[in-house]
Amino acid sequence: xxxxxxxxxxxxxxxxxxxxxAKPELNACHCGMCRRWTGGVFIEIDARPGxxxxxxxxxxxxxxxxxxxTSCATCGSPLWYRLTDPKADFHAVSAGLFDDAGGFPLTxxxxxxxxxxxxxxxxxxxxxxxxxxxASIGVSAEGEGQ
Length: 146
Prior knowledge:
The chain is mainly beta. The protein has two helices and eleven strands, in the order E-E-E-H-E-E-E-E-E-E-E-E-H. It has helices spanning 32-38, 130-137; strands at residues 6-9, 16-19, 26-29, 42-46, 53-55, 58-62, 67-72, 78-83, 91-94, 106-110, 126-128. The strands form two sheets. The protein has an eight-stranded mixed β-sheet with strand order 6-7-8-9-4-3-10-11. The radius of gyration is 15 Å and the shape is globular. The protein starts with 5 loop residues before the first strand and ends in a 9-residue tail after the last helix.
């Protein structure tokens, strides 16, 4: 597996994080909740299961029936998005916590049917609509309203 450990921190430095990336890549989410949470697109790195560690004041918010978002309790920096299914160990960690976003390339955008017209990322990478993404993780699009 991947032996690279990334270390980073929130804007104020009160929360430090470390993790091993599941893959050396960046993903971008354009859903309405991510845009409101971050003020733009949420660019993240998936953590290898069992490797995410955080120290400092964190707070979590259950943003849907199947996910929660965690932020620094001091400065409000987005830290990670987590699936709440007890069988899942999935954390999408904010790439902005790490210098140069880990140096990884953008490989996937999700909720592309929800992104504002002015948001456009260059390059050849996977682009999934809301329905395509939700189907890929086994969640019904009904009632999510993102």
